[in-house]
Amino acid sequence: MSLVLLKKGLRQKMKTKLDSLSSGDYQTFNSNIERNFSKLEMLKRVKNIMLYYSIRQEVQTEAIINFLLKADKRVALPVCLPERQLQASIIEDLNQLQPAAFGLVEPRPEAAILDPQQIDLVVVPGVVFDERGYRLGHGAGYYDRFLLKTTHSFKLGLAYDFQVIPELPLESHDIRMNGILTPSRYLEFNS
Question: Residue ranges of the domains in the chain?
Answer without folding.
Answer: 3-188
